[in-house]
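1st attempt posting a full record on here, be nice pls
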Amino acid sequence: MTDLRRVSAAWQRYDVTRRDLPLAVAVALAPFVPALHTQGTRLGGVPDRPVDALALVAIALQSAPLAVRRRWPAVCLALVSVGFAVDQLRGYHTVAGVALPVAVLSAAAHLEHHRRTTMVVASGAYAALAVALDRRGSGEGVAGFVTFYLFLAVAWGVGAWLRQTRAVEVARRQRVAETTRAAERTRLARELHDVVTHHVTAMVVQAEAARYLTADPGRLDQTLTAVTDTGRRAISDLRQLLDVLDPDHGPGPRTPTVGDLDDLVEQTRRSGQPVEYVEEGRPAQNAVAAHVAVYRVVQESLTNALKHAHGSRTVVRVHHGAADITVEVSTDGSGAPTAAVGGSERGLAGLRERVGLLGGELSAGRQPGGAFVVRARIPAAGAS
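the predicted structure (as C-alpha cells):
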C-alpha cells in the first residue's frame, strides 16, 4: 500500500500533459489491434472503407489532442471532432472514435471560459455532421442521431459534475487552511500574551522596587540582577516562540511542563511576591497539553498577582489526580496594585479557552474574604 502511494504521489508530480500522453498513445494504437477492428463507432451507416493515408490522419486527429485535453480542452475537442467527422464520413469507423466522448467530458471538466459557447458550437457541429451523413444515404434515422447526441450530453454532464466536485473540494480545503491559520494565529497570540505579559510585568515590578532601594546597595544589586535574569528568560521564551514561525531556524520550541513551576514560582518571589507552592500527587505521563495548560494557568495567575496585588501572600496548589489535574491560585487582597502595568483581560479569557478545549473548566473571582482565587480542572488525559 505504501509503495502504491509513493508511485501515485510521484505520478501526480508530473505535468498534466505527460500524464495524459499514455491515453493519447493508447487511442492511437488501438485501431491497429486486430481484435478491435470491428469495435469502432458507426454513426450514419456509411459503408466501411479500408484504412488509407487519410484514415491515419483521422486517427491522429482523434488521438494526439488527448495529450492536451486538460491543458487546452477546447483545442482538444475541436481537433477530435474534426477527426471523428472524417472517420465517420469516410467510413473508416476506427475504434479511435472513443476519443470524442473523452474530449467532451474533458472540455466540460476543465474548460474555464466560454463553456456555454462551446456547448452551442459543438451541438451545431454535430447537427451539421448528422445532416452530411444523412445526405450520404445514411440509414441511421433521427432516433439514432439523437441517441448518440444524448450519449455525448451525458459525457458533458459527467464532466460538469467532476468540475463542480473539484471546485467544492478546493473550497473546502481553502476553508480548512483558513481555519487552521486562524487557530494558529490565535494560539501564537495567546502564547505571546502569556510569555510577554508575565516577564514584562515582573521586570516592571522589579524596576519599580529598585527605585526605593538606592540606600541599600546590596538589595538594589539583587533586584537589578533579578531584572536582568527575567529579561534573559523573556528573550529565551520569545526565541522559542519564533522557532514555531521558523522551524528551520533552530531545534524547535521547548514546551513548558509542570516541572518548570518551581522556576516560575522562584522568579515571582524575586519580584517581591511572597508565593507558597504546594504540589500533590505525581504528574501523569503523556499529558503534554494538560501540563502546558497547568503551567499557563499558574503563570497568568502569578502575573495578575504581581500587577494587582503586589506584595500580597499568594498560594499555588497543584493536585495531580487519577483523571484530573486541579489548580488553585489564591492571592490575598492586601497588596498594592502596580500602576505601571495595565491589563487587557485577554489572559483569563485565553485560559478559559485553552482549558475548555481540553475538556476542563476554569473559574476566577474574588472571594468573600477578599482573596482573588483562580481555580482550574484539567483532564489529565485531555491531550496526550
